[in-house]
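Regression check, calcium ion case 521:
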Amino acid sequence: MDYGKYFNTRKTPQSQPLPNQVQNNAGGYSFQVDKWMLLDRFLILGTEGGSYYVGEQALTVENARAAYECIQEDGIRVVDRVVEISVQGRAAKNDPALYVLAMAAGTGNLATRRYALSYLSEVARTGTHLFTFVDYVQQFRGWGRALKNAVGNWYLDRPIEKLAYQAIKYRNRKGWTHADVLRKAHPKAHNQLQNDLFKWIVDGDVPSIQLVRAFEAAKTASEDDLVALIAQYDLPREALPTEALNSPKVWRSLLVHMPLMALVRNLGKLSNVGVVAPGRWVEIEHTVGMLTNRQKIQQSRIHPIQVLAALTTYSQGRGVRGSLTWDVVPEIVAALNTTYEMAFDNVEPSGKKTLVALDVSSSMTWGEVSGVPGLTPRVAAAAMAMMTIKTEPYTLPLAFSTEPTPMNLNKSMSLNEVIREMERIRFGGTDCALPMLWALENKAEVDLFVVYTDSETWYGKIHPVQALQMYREQMGIPAKLAVVGMLANKFSIADPNDPGMLDFVGFDTSVPQALAEFAKM
Ligand code: CA
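Current build output:
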């Protein structure tokens, strides 16, 4: 009887668990990340659209439950994490941070509730954020004095011109307006100007605040007057009447002071109305200058995923909903590639030999990352991996599903070329042991395996950690494994008890640098 054939700890099929493993959604076995890692995944990835295996609702409940348990265990730590990730702009969307902050403000102990509310203005930086927070918080608590004060201070602590700007730019979201919020919070104005502004918001009595007067004047202004108002008062696009947004003159005026985030979002429209178009050198130069301005990129907190979404849409010359079309300016496409790279934290290369492995299985082709149409986890993973490929001197790109496929990704490739390369690769089942097995079979020297995956592995005859152990022993290299989780599920192929393996969260802007640091450790 060969007992070892049925149970040993060195070569176990992925359909059977190792000690401490749990069954994943694909029917195989993975390690389970702790609730704090799941909280990070939720804050950075969100659960929009669910996953290949789990619907949006079930995935959200699982994540929310983990967040709730974290709040009960150490609410202050949760709030600190929310603030850190939100303020540094590490997530593509701020909604999960607002949701967890609202949960902490409603379900934490007294110290946590106070602490959460004290950070409201840091996490809810715009009117839209505030409306979203207010909508969420009502699901966890009522309008007690502490909540009224915190929301009231959001209005009271802002300089009047900045508050007026918020009021004309972000006017409603989720069924909430500033008038609704002011009626709930009842802040007591500190001075006459605040009082006048609140009165305008609630009753419509126009105050002597210039920005508000300009906003009101814009409602009935002629095209030329609008252009002048925009130039003088920096009125944002959101403050203009809808009809005005078909005017090239208006858009040209808007372009002059348009903040980076708005510029990236409106490239299609600016091109469609012919303001940023082939041969329009002044506007092209201005736009390229903005898109490649490192300081502006970092101040704006624009996230690489937002840039990637703009890049894929813009370079197709047609809007997602199909109604807008435009002529693509190659200089703008090139500039967006730079914006993308600059939107990550600076990376100091580790100089370590790095195998960059991309899970291209079916589950990674499902869904939309951060709600971006057409952006699947596997495409986003490839774009993310490019940061390592571009910065590290020694990298080996490899795709895998049920078989390994060396990939033609190199430093000089543009994101569109990367996406085309990804689209060529077939997908199938999932065997996350393949990167290590491939490296061993090819005697490839690897210090760090970086695997971009959802850890829903099930296909292989050996677990990824066992394959890594085998690689370490046979090659005599203490190789490490970094797992970049591309989905807010609770699974990982990294063994939490092995310090040479670590979990990272996909699309976290700090990941490329964190990978380099882990490699050097
Ligand atoms: Ca899969």
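Comparison notes: The mean pLDDT is 95. DSSP finds 25 helices and eleven strands in the chain. No diff flagged against the previous build.
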